[in-house]
Write a structure and sequence with these properties.
The chain is mainly beta. The chain is 13% helix and 41% strand. A nine-stranded antiparallel sheet has the order 14-11-10-15-16-3-17-28-27. Strands 18, 19, 20, 21, 22, 23, 24, 25 and 26 form a nine-stranded antiparallel sheet that branches. α5 packs across α6. The N and C termini lie far apart (86 Å).
Length: 853
């Protein structure tokens, strides 16, 4: 049945009023467009409405297809405005209608057909958004949940663990021989034991059982007896039964996502020694060798560095803080080499099972990593919430297996002239039967195109597949988005960018290297299973956690005319990128040009011009000393700049510098939220300038100087916020005070790895070094000026030279050595000044940051 559309002036205006360019229809235009309904209008009625202007589509004109398409925009606008029937024709078959009205070239038509979704034509004139049918839930594999309620599991077969023990034994055979004694006086027994390669064997009571082949002897006064097995053969066999449920272990995660597992030394509360296959070659009446055997086992266990710490994951979505951990052993019928050892980590709100399933390690693999579906989907939800107007509370993961992620509330936003609605439970994510993570959504969009509003259902989907080769896990992302024809005319909103930009990289895939783990296969039926072999076990005899961030320190002293006035901190031999840094002055010495002293108008230093490329920081200082038409002499002036840098490390950790500029004298900067509980302050620069009548609106003017004082300290913290308290002064004895301010560096130091920070204040040593004790051995340090005060000896005077700090410094053991830290001023060249600083009223202060050994 033929449908008709009735548009009243109000409804037409309502549909078109939200565009951004104006168009006015005359009464004749309205008569032609509205037909009989135009009788409701008087002869003077006109209608104004808006449509998408050409300027909004200019960025799209660079695309050849869109450029050709937009050449026909004016013609299409005119034709669409001629009658409502034209609009209906276009809605039912836009490409054919466009072809008939505009007569484009055939190539353009074919390219457009590739963009157009024929299965869902635009509901161009519907009054309300119809109820949208939700996506059908993705069916997941019925396989059991190998994660067993843990967020992360690392598991290895008993055979793999025995191979690791064998490698240790072959490489460290000298550490497997032990001697000692038990008892006192006449009952004292001396033993010398040597352990052959231990191995885990089939247990009798489902607990991990380590076989310890032992050779050696026991000496009792007058008797030496060798160790044998029950059949009189060498070696004998002691068996150490381990109850891993009682293993003392913990896990924690720091603020940049590194999960560190700590395992404490086993004790005899969790161990039992079985000596049923041990006997002595010569019987010693009344002798119990248990204590001697326990002593040897204690020495064996103590060969490891305890507690063992190992970083098992990085950049995980787990919450910072302490985590629950389980050390597991599960025995199965059949080949004992298939028994499993496992380490499980999870959040405190989980209730995991302390057992591993037989399928945990895939066939033809000796080890596996299991990541729960819940933590993967929680990570996806967090990424979506971070990049969009959604909140994490609106994206939830079900608490039933297999977990799925849902959008559980209506979301409506208006971006770029479009209404976007995601219906409840219409954004979904789950694993499918092929082992891929599927994220999909039907999103209803109301968007302006030319003079009309177009309603479209945008189908978005992303498939994440997990593959592996060598020792690399490959995560590949494929995205799909069916874009209707008229979407080519307007910029795409955040909805399309949501899936495509978050879930796909430029290459469409991500490679993740797992150090020491050779990946063979992956599987993801409602969890991620990565199977392979350890090239080396993650825990060694002397465990080596993942290296801490690479912190480097450097200081440079040079004249201001050297190297084009640039200070070059080259860290390229330590890595490829400087991810976080602080640069500040340690020493400064400014001298006027010419051969005489002068009254001073301006004194300043700025270090804000820093170029960071390829692990090289290039600092161009802006140093100023000016008065009576004379300026600073670069060849006679110098700076010592110090730098602490994190090379190839996290961008949001270790050191967190924030520079706050132009803090006036005796004021507090704005408060800044802290990521760490402590913060420190250093001088980043300063600006002092005299003005006529001390009025900044008046012209600058030169005067004598009596005192210069600069200081940056942390203000009293406000909860977890802190600011910088400033002192910035330059004045003479006649009431002339400079307009002065400082730049302050607010510095936070993380606790992982620990850095030592210490203030040293009010130093004035013109010829002696100062030794600063840091409390423990250090490998390196940087020294930043935090305060400076210089005061002429008798009255105010001209300046020839001014400065202060520690020109250079060094470290030794647990000390930082500051070389001649002092403040100076003079009205003549060094050693020839008539007037210099009053040492009792002049001094410098420093912030020292050191790296412990």
């Amino acid at each position: 049945m033929e449908e008709t559309l009735t548009l009243s002036p109000d409804s037409l205006q309502r549909r078109l009023k939200k565009q951004t360019a104006s168009l006015t229809l005359s009464p004749d235009d309205l008569q032609r467009l509205l037909g009989k309904q135009a009788s409701q209008l008087d002869s003077s009625t006109s209608l104004s409405f808006e449509f998408t202007p050409t300027s909004q589509t200019d960025p799209l004109r660079r695309d050849p297809v869109l450029s050709n398409l937009l050449q026909h925009e004016a013609r299409m606008l005119k034709w669409l405005g001629e009658s409502e029937g034209n609009a209906r024709q276009f809605a039912l078959d836009p490409i054919s209608t466009f072809q008939r009205v505009c007569d484009p070239n055939p190539e353009l038509v074919e390219e457009l057909r590739g963009l157009f979704d024929r299965e869902e034509p635009s509901d161009l004139i519907e009054e309300e958004i119809e109820q949208q049918q939700g996506l059908q839930e993705v069916e997941s594999s019925p396989d059991p949940d190998l994660s067993q309620g843990w967020d992360l599991i690392s598991a290895s077969t008993q055979g793999a663990v025995n191979n690791w023990i064998s490698e240790l034994f072959e490489g460290d055979s000298g550490q497997w021989s032990f001697s000692g004694s038990v008892g006192k006086g006449p009952a004292k027994v001396r033993y010398e034991f040597a352990f052959d390669c231990p191995a885990f064997i089939a247990p009798e009571d489902l607990k991990a059982t380590l076989d310890l082949p032992i050779t050696g002897f026991i000496k009792f006064p007058g008797i030496t007896s060798n160790i044998e097995d029950a059949q009189g053969q060498s070696p004998g066999h002691a068996r150490l039964v381990l109850d891993l449920d009682k293993m003392q272990a913990s896990a924690s995660i720091n603020h940049y996502g590194q999960v560190t597992v700590t395992i404490k030394k086993p004790n005899w509360d969790m161990m039992e020694l079985d000596l049923s296959d041990i006997q002595l070659s010569k019987s010693i009446k009344g002798l119990d060798i248990t204590d001697a055997m326990k002593g040897a086992v204690d020495q064996l266990i103590s060969s490891f560095d305890w507690p063992i710490k190992y970083t098992v994951a990085q950049h995980t979505p787990l919450p910072a803080g302490n985590l629950d951990i389980g050390v597991m052993y599960t025995a199965f019928d059949g080949d004992s080499d298939s028994n499993l050892f496992g380490l499980g980590i999870c959040r405190g709100n989980r209730q995991p099972i302390d057992a591993l399933l037989p399928q945990t390690v895939p066939s033809n693999c000796t080890s596996a990593l299991i990541v729960s579906n819940d933590i993967i989907l929680t990570s996806v939800a967090a990424a979506i919430a971070e990049a969009t107007p959604l909140t994490s509370s609106q994206l939830t993961v079900t608490d039933t297996y297999p977990e799925k992620m849902y959008l559980n509330t209506d979301v409506e936003d208006v971006i770029e002239g479009a209404h976007i609605k995601i219906k409840e439970n219409n954004l979904q994510a789950a694993f499918n039967n092929d082992g891929d993570l599927v994220i999909s959504a039907d999103i209803r969009v109301k968007r302006g195109a030319m003079t009309l509003w177009v309603y479209q259902t945008l189908k978005l989907s992303a498939t994440i597949s997990f593959n592996a080769y060598d020792d690399v896990l490959n995560i590949q992302v494929k995205t799909k988005a069916k874009l209707p024809f008229w979407w080519a005319f307007v910029p795409l909103g955040w909805v399309i960018q949501l899936i495509i930009s978050i879930l796909s990289s430029k290459k469409g895939s991500v490679d993740i290297a797992i150090p020491g783990f050779q990946v063979k296969k992956t599987n993801s039926p409602a969890y991620l299973q990565v199977g392979g072999d350890w090239a080396y076990m993650p825990i060694k005899l002397h465990s080596t956690p993942i290296a801490p961030p690479n912190i480097q320190m450097m200081h440079i002293n040079q004249q201001l005319d050297e190297n084009g006035g640039r200070f070059r901190f080259d860290f390229s031999r330590y890595g490829s990128e400087v991810t976080s840094f602080i640069v500040a002055a340690t020493y400064w010495f400014f001298k006027y040009e010419g051969g005489t002293d002068h009254q001073t108008q301006t004194l300043g230093l700025s270090l804000t011009q820093v170029h960071n490329k390829n692990a090289v920081l290039t600092v161009t200082p802006d140093a100023t000393l000016f008065g009576q038409k004379k300026g600073l002499s670069p060849s006679d002036s110098q700076l010592t700049l110090s730098c602490i840098a994190v090379v190839d490390g996290p961008k949001d950790g270790v050191i967190l510098p924030r520079t706050i500029t132009d803090i006036p004298d005796e004021s507090t900067s704005q408060y800044i939220p802290l990521d760490e509980p402590e913060a420190y302050a250093a001088l980043g620069g300063w600006a002092c300038e005299y003005h006529k009548d001390n009025d900044p609106s008046e012209p600058p003017k030169s005067h004598h100087v009596r005192t210069i004082e600069l200081d940056a300290t942390t203000a009293v913290p406000n909860n977890y916020e802190v600011g910088i308290q400033s002192t910035a002064q330059m004045h003479d004895d006649s009431g002339n005070n400079a307009i002065a301010s400082i730049d302050g560096n607010l510095i936070e130091l993380s606790k992982s790895p620990p850095l030592i920070a210490k203030y040293v204040t009010n130093l004035q040593k013109t010829s002696d070094d100062v030794y600063v004790e840091m409390g423990q051995p250090i490998s390196d340090a940087v020294v930043f000026l935090s305060g400076y005060r210089v005061h002429y000896d008798s009255s105010d005077h001209d300046i020839r030279q001014v400065g202060g700090g520690s020109e250079t410094y060094s470290t030794s053991g647990s000390q930082v050595i500051l070389h001649n830290p002092h403040a100076l001023i003079g009205d003549g060249d060094s050693g020839n000044s008539k007037h210099t600083q009053e040492n009792s009223e002049s001094h410098v202060s420093f912030l020292i940051i050191a790296v412990p050994e």
